[in-house]
Inverse folding.
């Protein structure tokens, strides 16, 4: 038997059902015996929502009123009545089992499962398996419209069913028409058989994501599995303490692949409010995208498309030690942080105690270590059930030795990321995107000073590139200084929604701010403010600029200079990170040794061979450091490339590999101590020109121990 089910919410209707998080207000159903072709009683139940305000579309389509809904039963009561009435109808028809049949998947996956999950009451088993009438109809009638374009009305029209929607109450007509469509599919000409229902997973399956990466040289064995980019999304704005189960609950009703939740970590191994989620197919991914800005508690979560490559970088790497640790499935993982460096397995087991036994004893512990074998103070622990894990979490911030220990829920993907990050001593995902194209560093410096000859664009679409900005500027494009467009990037090297433009004069900047303020770019309005070069520089360094003036950066920059900064002569290759950091923008002005007049121009290259480009982008680290889109580039004119190639200017560094960075210095370190530290090595000549102490402004950006850059 089938139970034909139709429902409506207080908000959007049709293809957008459930996309606005509005509650269910109507359920209509009828039992259909597929063998005898008999039907049970048609039932219609109103549902009392917590918020009785109805959208205009709902009022127009359903003709329901808040007054009528206020007298209805809440959803949990209606679902109890549903089960009782269906059982009664089945007995009358001489049947005992049934499967739901709905018009598409939205009612089951996007309305019922998310709403009952938020209201903390379970759905009966019948809601975890159902037939999608649109798919069944297309299977029976292949020449009909595509599944995504089907509606009850189009299916009825295809079959020539003469039904008048205006004659019946809202919901009643839909169910009656669906029943008529099913009987047509069961007729002798079609003899359709309902055999493969849609399923909803009861719970998210944890466990290691068995995707091994070739480029991790230290792996003892390697396998490869591609991840379809059409199945992956990026969720951002997550509470920092959210676990993979919390994320799975947010996507309740959709089928996430096993081990398909990967929490993103920053370079310090802490969660940054993002997660990559892999679904079983593209259809589930598309439904997940409709939950953009749905709420997890009091926070709304942004949902964007992501790629399989991004998912692999987060969840794909592992080692034999990690694989063995994660080989025990259906385990609850807890992360311990702040352990004494001398802590042993026995110490950890004693700290947890007999009330929360670790799976496999010592085998259920995984200590995270640096490449040289030193402990990091982190460890992961396996528990066989939720009860033991809860007991362990109660020990959060209890003392082990002389230190308090933090305990958090964790995931298999987080285990892989943390262990690999520590093992490689650099983040699994680099701070900035991998290089693919050659770049010529521009022979200019970003303007400074108090003259307000710059403008700031705020609220740009994440997909906006320099071409879009130039089009947005209109006639004022001719008043932009050469190389005067600066896109502000976030920690992933992606647009943050801000940009700065250097104009030829303060008057031009004022006119642009007046003309373009709150002008539309694509589907967003963009704010345009006049500012000075000094203010622009400060924001590009990580600070903030608002009506109250300049504010310190919102969070710490992991580094201002790349770990392996080097510049070479023409046609040489330098690390990708160095090309993305222009020293004029990141370091204070210093005296440099006079360059030889015959010195050739310093040209920075990326490995790949492609057209030469200008890259007017500066790293910026907002809080949280997240963004869903990718970086665009603009090609340099051929004439500009030729001019840059023949120009003579001072090399960035006197010779390859001459720049080193010192971290972890005592706060009271001075020039004398540093020179003593490098005793026996030749540093930059005369007057210690090469010793550059970071400026006070850069110090506020770093919020870290004193650092020096030495040439």
């Amino acid at each position: 038997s089938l139970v034909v089910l139709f429902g409506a919410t207080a908000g959007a209707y049709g293809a957008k059902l459930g996309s606005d998080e509005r509650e269910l207000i109507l359920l209509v159903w009828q039992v259909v015996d597929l063998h005898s072709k008999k039907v049970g009683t048609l039932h219609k139940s109103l549902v009392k929502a917590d918020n009785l305000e109805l959208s205009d579309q709902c009022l127009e389509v359903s003709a329901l009123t808040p007054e009528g809904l206020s007298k209805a039963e809440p959803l949990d009561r209606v679902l109890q009545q549903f089960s009782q009435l269906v059982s009664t109808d089945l007995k009358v028809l001489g049947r005992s089992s049934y499967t739901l049949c709905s018009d598409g998947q939205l009612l089951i996956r996007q309305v019922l499962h998310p709403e009952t999950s938020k209201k903390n009451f379970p759905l009966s088993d019948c809601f975890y398996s159902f037939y999608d009438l649109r798919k069944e109809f297309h299977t029976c009638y292949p020449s009909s419209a595509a599944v995504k374009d089907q509606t009850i009305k189009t299916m009825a029209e295809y079959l020539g069913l003469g039904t008048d929607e205006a004659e019946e109450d809202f919901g009643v007509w839909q169910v009656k028409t669906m029943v008529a469509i099913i009987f047509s599919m069961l007729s002798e000409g079609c003899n359709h058989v309902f055999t493969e229902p849609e399923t909803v997973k009861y719970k998210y399956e944890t466990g290691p994501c068995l995707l091994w990466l070739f480029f991790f040289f230290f792996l003892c064995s390697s396998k490869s599995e591609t991840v379809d980019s059409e199945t992956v999304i990026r969720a951002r704005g997550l509470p920092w303490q959210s676990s993979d189960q919390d994320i799975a609950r947010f996507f309740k009703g959709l089928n996430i692949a096993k081990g398909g939740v990967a929490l993103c970590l920053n370079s310090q191994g802490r969660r940054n409010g993002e997660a990559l989620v892999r679904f079983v197919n593209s259809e589930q991914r598309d439904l997940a995208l409709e939950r953009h800005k749905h709420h997890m508690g009091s926070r709304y979560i942004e949902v964007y498309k992501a790629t399989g490559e991004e998912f692999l970088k987060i969840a794909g790497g592992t080692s034999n030690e990690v694989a063995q640790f994660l080989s025990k499935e259906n385990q609850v993982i807890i992360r311990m942080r702040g352990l004494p460096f001398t802590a042993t397995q026995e110490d950890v087991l004693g700290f947890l105690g007999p009330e929360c036994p670790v799976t496999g004893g010592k085998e259920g512990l995984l200590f995270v270590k640096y490449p040289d074998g030193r402990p990091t103070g982190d460890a992961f622990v396996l528990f066989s059930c939720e009860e033991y894990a809860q007991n362990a979490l109660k020990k959060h911030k209890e003392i082990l030795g002389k230190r308090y220990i933090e305990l958090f829920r964790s995931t298999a993907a987080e285990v892989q990321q943390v262990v690999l990050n520590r093992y490689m001593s650099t983040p699994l995902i680099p701070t900035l995107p991998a290089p693919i194209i050659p770049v010529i560093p521009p022979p200019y410096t970003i303007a400074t000073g108090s003259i307000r000859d710059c403008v700031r664009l705020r609220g740009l679409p994440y997909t906006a590139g320099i071409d879009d900005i130039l089009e947005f500027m209109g006639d004022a494009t001719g008043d932009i200084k050469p190389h005067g467009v600066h896109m502000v990037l976030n920690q992933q090297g992606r647009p943050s929604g801000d940009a700065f433009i250097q104009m030829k004069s303060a008057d031009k900047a004022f006119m642009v701010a007046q003309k373009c303020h709150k002008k539309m770019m694509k589907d967003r309005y963009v704010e345009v403010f006049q500012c000075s070069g000094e203010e622009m520089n400060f924001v590009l360094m990580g600070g903030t600029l608002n009506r109250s003036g300049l504010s310190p950066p919102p969070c710490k920059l992991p580094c201002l200079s790349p770990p392996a900064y080097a510049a070479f002569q023409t046609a040489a290759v330098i690390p990708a990170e160095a090309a993305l950091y222009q020293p004029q923008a990141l370091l204070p002005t210093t005296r440099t040794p006079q360059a030889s007049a015959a010195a050739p121009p310093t040209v920075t290259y990326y490995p790949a061979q492609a057209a030469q480009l200008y890259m007017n982008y500066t790293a910026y680290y907002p809080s949280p450091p997240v963004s869903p889109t990718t970086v665009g580039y603009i090609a340099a004119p051929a004439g500009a490339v030729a001019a840059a190639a023949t120009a003579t200017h001072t090399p960035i560094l006197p010779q390859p590999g001459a720049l080193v960075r010192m971290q972890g210095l005592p706060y009271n370190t001075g020039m004398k101590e540093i020179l003593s530290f490098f005793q026996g090595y030749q540093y930059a000549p005369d007057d210690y020109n090469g010793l550059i102490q970071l400026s006070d402004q850069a110090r506020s950006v770093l919020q870290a121990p004193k650092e020096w850059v030495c040439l």
